[in-house]
Amino acid sequence: MILKDLKELKEFEFLVDGDLNKEINGCFIGDLLSWVMAKGQPGDAWVTVQAHLNVAAVALLREFACLIICDGAAIAEETIEKCKEEEFPIIKTELSAYEVSKVLSKLL
Amino acid sequence: MLTKKYLVKEKDYVNAGKVSSLIKKELKTIGVDESVIRKIAIASYEAEINMIIHANGGEIIFSIDDEGVITLVFADTGPGIPNIELAMTPGWSTASDDARQMGFGAGMGLVNIKRYSDTFDLKTSQEGTTITLGFKVI
């Protein structure tokens, strides 16, 4: 699946698009940054409620496909700015991590 | 031989990971293999975070020698690690509540650093901690 497939769903609000033709290869759900660094794989959609600036650093370092901030968690403005600067897709949703993974598993 | 030095500030959670990002960019410019860059990025990020959470900040020295061996030195002036064995146990953490709320303090920092580096050396005392990591470029 590519990012554009997610953008077509009304539940996902893209705060930064990045390259909409970028492939999503999998999904990693986690809020503990060290676990995410160690276990996430490049190309994963990272689903989390953490939304401070450091999350953008982890997502970029780990080369995830995108950041999905679930449960309507508040996103720091500086996180969005960093994603804009790096053209890295950040997506907001009211869905829970479980509901996001259900959507992704249908599309992957 | 190329050497670069970066400073890391104490409790600067917001900028945590910045130096690791700069090192990663440097490695890409040099043309280091992607799989090696990933290993270095993980180990470097964890060590940088440790300096911010547990120590008083410090400096990170990145170097690559003529044979392509990459060395990263993380030197802080923090309180040191009282029990290295415990600190190396997966899941063990002394991170503050503030740090944990931000998703730090999983107790995987040193574990990840050792796992993803080719050589690992840790020296610690009450005057500070120095971690030296080596990576072979394939």
Please report the two chains with the greatest interface, counting residues with C-beta closer than 8 angstroms to the partner's C-beta: A-B, 22 and 26 residues
Helix content of chain B: 25-40%
Residue-averaged pLDDT of chain A: 96
Q: How many separate helices of chain B? A: 5
Strand order of the largest sheet of chain B: 1-2-3-5-4
Low-confidence stretches of chain A: none
Walk me through the structure.
The complex is a heterodimer of chains A (108) and B (138). Chain A is of the alpha/beta class. In chain A, strands 1-5-4-3-2 form a 5-stranded mixed beta sheet. Chain A is globular. The relative contact order of chain A is 0.24. Chain B is α+β, with helices and mostly antiparallel strands and 138 residues long. Chain B has a single domain, classed as Histidine kinase-like ATPase, C-terminal domain (Heat Shock Protein 90, 2-Layer Sandwich), CATH 3.30.565.10. In chain B, β4 and β5 form a beta hairpin. Classes of the chains: A alpha/beta (108), B alpha+beta (138). Chains A and B meet through α2 and α3 of A and α1, α2 and α5 of B.
Salient structural properties:
heterodimer, A: 108 residues, Udp-n-acetylmuramoylalanyl-d-glutamate--2,6- Diaminopimelate Ligase, Chain: A, domain 1, five-stranded mixed sheet, 5 helices, B: 138 residues, alpha+beta, Heat Shock Protein 90, 5 strands, 37% helix
List the helices and strands and how they pair.
The complex is a heterodimer of chains A (108) and B (138).
Chain A: H1 3-7, E1 13-16, E2 26-29, H2 33-39, E3 44-48, H3 53-61, E4 66-69, H4 77-86, E5 90-92, H5 97-107
Parallel strand pairs in A: 2-3, 3-4, 4-5
Antiparallel strand pairs in A: 1-5
Helix pairs in contact in A: 3-4
Chain B: E1 2-9, H1 18-30, H2 34-54, E2 57-64, E3 69-76, H3 84-87, H4 97-101, H5 109-116, E4 119-125, E5 128-136
Antiparallel strand pairs in B: 1-2, 2-3, 3-5, 4-5
